[in-house]
Amino acid sequence: MKLFPSHVEVPDDDPQVARVLVNRVRLERTRQFGACFLGWELWKHLELDRFFEQAVDDDPAEVAWSRVAAVLAINRLCAPGSELAVEERWYPATALDDLLEIAEGKINDTRLYRCLDRILPHKTKLEQHLKQRYGELFGAEFDVLLYDLTAPTWKERRRRIR
Fold this sequence. Notes:
The chain has a domain at 34-140. It has 8 helices and no strands. It has helices at residues 34-45, 48-56, 65-78, 83-90, 96-99, 109-119, 123-138, 152-161.
């Protein structure tokens, strides 16, 4: 396999040429990126990063609570599941640690549950923020805005019980 035509001789000292041993190239730690990147960009576009930084980042923490909230929301967008499933299966298979600059091993189910407890008191302000951003982004005017807050895991548990 050659990247250059056989009639072209590449000088050994050319700094623009990288020599690669193709038989030694490996693929390691593949992770989901696209959907997570889209979720993170939507999060920023809705200015939820700033909202949660102001709302829940008042106490110093090993991982900023606003970033943990982003992990939870992006999970609900990409692959809804329990907090335990986020910790054990979903999060390690994503590129969110790099996107959100969270050190490896810092997301666990306890931290995820604590984050839910921290964001709950801000529910009304969050609803107002989202309504305002929706109006700003889409020029929408409305008297009533309906949205579904049902967690998919609740529906799944209900199905299993029946």
